[in-house]
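User: Before I run my own analysis I want an independent prediction to cross-check against. Here's the chain; please return only the structure tokens and, at the end, one sentence I can use as a sanity check.
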Amino acid sequence: MIPCAPEHLARIQAVPFGGCDDKTWIAGCLAVYVEMIENRVHFAQAAYRDAEFPWILGDLTVGHPNGEVWEPALGEQLADTLLEPVGQWCLYFSGKNEPRRPAADAWLAEHRPPVQWIPDRPLARANEQGMLAPFVAAIRKRRVCVVGPRHMRGLKGVFTSQWCHLPVPDGTAWKEAATLGRKIQVLAETAGFDLFLIAAGSGAALTIHRAWPEVKERATLIDIGATLDPYAGVFSRNLYRTSEWRKHVMPKNLPNG
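Assistant: Structure tokens:
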């Protein structure tokens, strides 16, 4: 399967990765994302990391931050999105020392899914480092739909133009992936929304897999994870709860912040 936007993907993959806090790597990747958003180069990006791979491997010792509970069908469906990809880019672990990476590496070596990988989470790291403002400025020029839990209705300061919220259930969004995919298709085709930021736990990868073949000519799909949570008043990660990040880093992520 040929990945979407292969030239831009290659540019992101070519940026030397020096670790998740490498600001040179973050800036290099971010510049490509911003260019794509501004020029409406559509792509789909999903994450397969420390939440998704335990489900694929059936590791029941792992808890998911959004309350997901493992079921055999969840692991099977996530594996299918890798073994039968639709061109989506895939985010992977950031380093060899991550405790769940060896088992994931072994699974990949055995199954050899035909996908393209990006190390770590460039957009999330930009958010953590106070470098996300160019991306926010770019998405403000697009018609954005945030696909995520109820608290996403409270987003403030991120969007200044037209945007909408497509709600998902906490913990079980993956069961609604087909329905969410159809709703995304309708919003893209009838309402002109062309950028979907998806925060649906492991359901994001499934939703992107369902929706991308139908909207790839008219919309961009990004698994945004917990990146937008603080701007909706939910400080869901330890870093977000520190006073240093909230007072001095978070404001830098908003243009004119």
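Sanity check: The CA atoms of residues 48 and 92 lie 6 Å apart.
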